[in-house]
Each structure stands twice: as structure tokens, then as C-alpha cells.
Records
---
Amino acid sequence: MEIMAFVGSPRKGSNVDTLVDRVLAGADSSASVEAEKIYLYEADIKNCIGCLACTALKGGQPCPLKDAMPGILARMINADAFIFSTPNYVHSMSAALTNFFCRMQPLIKMDIIRDAQGNITGADATTLISGKRAVAVVSQGDFSPSRSALILRSLESNLRDFKLKAVGEVLSTGNLEKAAVKDKPHDLDLAFAVGARLASK
Ligand SMILES: Cc1cc2nc3c(=O)[nH]c(=O)nc-3n(C[C@H](O)[C@H](O)[C@H](O)COP(=O)(O)O)c2cc1C
């Protein structure tokens, strides 16, 4: 099973990264896993410029940005499952993960529906990663889990837009200090269990 993990924190080896490693360890416990971890803050991924070239509105042209994204998208089409992870930054997912979802738009193939006057009335979408499995991982500083409710909802909506099968989520709280989650066996166990579910068919 090929799993691609996207780390949306700039702090390598810290909370989000540690939880992603536990998800991968859990996945490895229930299947033979080949994992690729991509640090979104280090990868050569430029910011989406909103040109819409990749969308049906402009005929689904190649993205004009020259970077590592075409290769990443090609590997996503071949992968079996994904881990999307982020710290809570100002009540939102990190800028790097937001941008990554924007840059994933070429994976969505949309047929625009117009009325007799040519006005857009809707759209039918398919995606090139439809049906693959995915989990979401979030770490926050605050102790109240509700502080990341919007982020989890947003992640869930994005997984749905890409027609991925959400098989679990990990939310770890009270992690303001670097790698604080390493002292939280319950959260590490949860991440491991979610990983095991990700890899079990
Ligand atoms: C710029 C910034 C904004 C943050 N905003 C929030 C926030 O709104 N709510 C929260 O609970 N934690 C917030 N945090 C704390 C991080 O979510 C928390 O430390 C997280 O565990 C970081 O993950 P990391 O160690 O993997 O980078 C913020 C941290 C930073 C650096």
C-alpha cells in the first residue's frame, strides 16, 4: 500500500510530524506500507495564483506554475491513501496546507452545467483520486478540542470535494511547546489506531 503523508507544519519533528509518524506506524502494523512524507513548507510548491487555468472554466489547461506539483499529483494518482496534517494556526489550517489543497485542483475534472442562456447553474465533478482513503491530523495549543472544529470541518469538506474516503481523524490538544505530544501516550495511540484503519481494507 502506498501512502503519501503531507506535513503542514514548518516544525520538523514536532507535534504534527510526530503524529503523522504514529499514523504511518499504525498503517505499517496492518499492511505492507510504502510511505512518502512531504514537508509542505520545504517542498518546491509555489502559491496558487488563482488564474483558474486548471479548471473547466478555462478548459483544464496545465498549471502555469513550474515546480514540484505535477510530479506530486502524478504520484497521488498512483497512491492508495493520504494523510493530511496541520497545526491550528489562528483557528485555521496552516497556509501551506491551504495552498496545497488549492494546488490539488487539477485533480478535479468538472463538467459545467449551463442553462439555455449560457448561465452556469451547476457542475458535475469527478476526481483523479476518487475513492482513495484519507485521514486528517490536527495539533493545537489550546486545551479545548472545539477550537479546531472549523479546521476538522474544512478538512472533511476538502476530502469530500476530492471524493476521498475519510477513514478517521486525529486531534491532539494542549501542544503549544515543540513536540509536546511525545508525552501524550493516549494521543499517540489514537494516531496509531487511525493509521491501522487507514491501511486496513
Ligand atoms: C502563528 C501561530 C498561530 C497559532 N494559533 C493557534 C490557535 O488559534 N489555536 C490554538 O489552539 N493553537 C494555535 N497555535 C499553536 C499550534 O497550533 C500548536 O503549537 C501546534 O501543536 C503546533 O504544531 P507543530 O508543533 O507541529 O508545529 C498557533 C501557533 C502559531 C505558531
---
Amino acid sequence: MTSPLDARLATHLAEFRKDGVYKVLNHLDSPQAARVTMEGRGEIIILSSNNYLGLSNDPTVVKAGISGLEHYGAGTASVRFICGTYTIHRQLEAACARLVGTEAALSFVSCWNANEAVPATLLTDRDVVLSDQLNHASIIDAIRLAKSITKCTTGVFQHSDLTDLDRKLSDHREAEVKLVITDGIFSMEGSLANLPGLLDTCRRHGATLMVDDSHATGVLGATGRGTAEHFDLVGEIDIITSTLGKALGGAAGGFVAGSSNLCDYLTQRARPQLFSNALPPTVAASAHAAITTLEAHPERVTTLREQSTYFRNQLTAMGFSPLPGETPIIPVILGETAAAIRMSELLLDEGVFVTGFGYPVVPQGTARVRCQISAAHTRQDLDEALAAFGRAGRSLGLI
Ligand SMILES: Cc1ncc(COP(=O)(O)O)c(C=O)c1O
């Protein structure tokens, strides 16, 4: 007999299909690289991965993961404070802190977990947390959790609107701790937070600034140290969270970086630390190798920037309207959701994997295909992808 829950799920799944929002997973059988092998399609160019530096499949990173597995086995088999912590975790955390320019860092099994740990662990009912309107889902959920656990006050400021933030901080001038959270790069737009403005506003109000740099670590700044380096503010940001699941090898994992007191306190009290196993040593070792490779080869960041600028300029020259910006996230706005989905299907037929996003992920009328460039892409990869964009765009009457 079908349970009430199963019946409900089946109804919703049928609705998703009818509304055209059902997500079909494409099956890959090769590592993330400029080109991947997709079931039923063979080799295709991928423009929808966060493998910004091309490190996922880098031999040094892969070998380090294997050595980590051989040296430490599969994992800690418990949480760190109970059964001990590995040298590789300490090495990774020191490397994360060095990279983003903070005193200390603490690793988590994902940046989702890292974000979830911060407000719920640090805030109280005497505090307020204010979040940019376009912040990542993990920050939104982290704040919901913090509100329910700590009874802190919460608020949202208009996207990148310093006047609105200033007003809301003034409204909460009595709060003991004021925590302001922003993404470094906003992933659907590829746009940057106004870090100098945010920092100035926070300082005037005695607020703490937390930046989720998941899309910017390894990407922004001359040497890939993130949004802070881009704005010449390394060492100035109170709390940085980031992922190891994008530019830094792409496996999984995240970290919180900040003062030694912050990381020590989270070690003592953050529930995802206290009640969940550590990052697998395989992943810690490959992420550590990704960071040292980045430090030794900052030219990867330069390549990424040059390839991104090239792709953006060529798309514009062809008559598309990519959102302006200076990041490897290049969204091409197509209007209605159906247009974005159709474009992404046509591109896949042409051998190029780019995901289309529509409402409610992005506002009505701004559906888009979002291209993400990697330092692993060659000019030939990009030129082939651009030619496919041209054919698909012409057949849809977009250019
Ligand atoms: C801005 C941002 N924060 C956090 C996350 C979550 O990262 P993780 O995959 O490490 O949980 C993502 C991933 O999509 C992200 O884009």
C-alpha cells in the first residue's frame, strides 16, 4: 500500500514534471575537467562546473588524496574531540588561514556546515544578524537555525545596498553583537560584494562582517586569495567562510577562518563540529595539495581571468548580453524560463553542458544560462563552445 508520504511525494514529482522544473541529472563517467564524458553523449565541453582552477583532476591533488587515504585510512571514525584529530587536518587549516589571511581556520565537512555553525553558535538573544538579500541558501538556512536556537533578531538588507544596511544597523543599535553576512561573489549574477563599503559601514556601527567566499577563493585577487585580496583588504575581514568543493580541488569540505578565539570557540561549541565526523583525510589531503599548488602557481588565476574575459567579450561581440562583471561566472540573460531551458538543451545537443536557471531560482523574466569558465579550458574549448552558442542562439532567434 502506498503510504501518505509516498503519495504526496509522487504528486509533487508529477507537478514538477508538468511545470517543467523537474531536474534531470546528467550522468558523467570521467573526472571534472574542461571536457567530460556524459552518458549517451560522449565527450562534451563543460561550462557549468566550479572547477575554476582545473585542480579537481590535477595529478598532484589526486596523488595527495591517495596518500592521505593510505596514510590515515578512511577517516576518524568519530568526532575530533572524542577520538583525536589528524595532522593533515591541522596542516589544511593552517593552509586555509594562510590563504585567506586570518589567524586561524577550522575545517567542516562542507561550507554549508561551516555557515550553519557560525550564527547559531556565536549569537544570543541580545544580538542581530543582517543578511544580503541574494545570499546563498546555506546562509539563509543558517540564519533560520540561529533564530530558532538562539532567539537572535534577524533581518535582510537589499542586495548590495549600503544605505539600507546602514539604516538597519541603526535600527538595531542596541544589539550587543551585530553580525552582517554577505557572499563575496554572488553565484547567480557573478557579481562582487562591495567589500570596502560593507567594511566601512560595519566599522561605523561596531558590527562584525562575515564573508562567504566560496566562489571567490582561488578565483579573485592577483593570487587567488579571494574577495579581500581583490579589494586589497586581506587581514581586514572578521570572519571568512569558504568551500573546498569548488576551486580548491572540488571534492567537498569547507572552513571558517578568523581569529584564534573564533576558531577555538567554534571547536568548543559548534554543533556540526561536536556531533559530526571530521572531513575525510583523503579530502583534507587533496584540498591541502590544491592550496599549495595554487600558492606555487598563481598563474592559474591569471589564466582563469584571461579566459573569462575572452569568453565574455566574444559572447558580447556575437550579440548576446552576458551580465557585465569580472568573474568566471558569466550569466547570459534570456528572459523566460522556457528560453533558458531550451537554450541549454540545444547547447547540450551541440556538445556543450551549460545549465539553465529560471524562476524561482532567479527573478521572473531573468532566466539565464550560466557559464562558468575554468583555467583548464583552452582557447579551442572556448572557441568551440562559442560556435555552439552562435548556432543555438541563431536557431532560437536570440542573435
Ligand atoms: C556561496 C556558497 N556558499 C556555500 C556553498 C556550500 O558549499 P559546500 O558545497 O561546501 O557545502 C555554496 C555551494 O554551492 C556556495 O555557492
